[in-house]
Fold this sequence. Notes:
Layout (H helix, E strand, L loop, with lengths): L7 H8 L9 H9 L3 H14 L23
Amino acid sequence: MHSNSVPADVRWAIVKWPDDAPRGAVAAFCAEHGISRQVFAKIRKRARDEGQMPRPPRSPGPRGRARPGPTEQ
């Protein structure tokens, strides 16, 4: 599962994840919810960096060049 398709309730559980969770708990959580540990870590890091509920990844921006508008005469 890609990080932008993780449901909000799973994201919230990751944000609230305890620092002292037992060994193997992250792997079990990820397997249960069908996400990779890398996605888990990415969501957790973004929440720590931004200090809030992480949103899906930001769009990289428009693809290609903008179409030229009508020319002024």
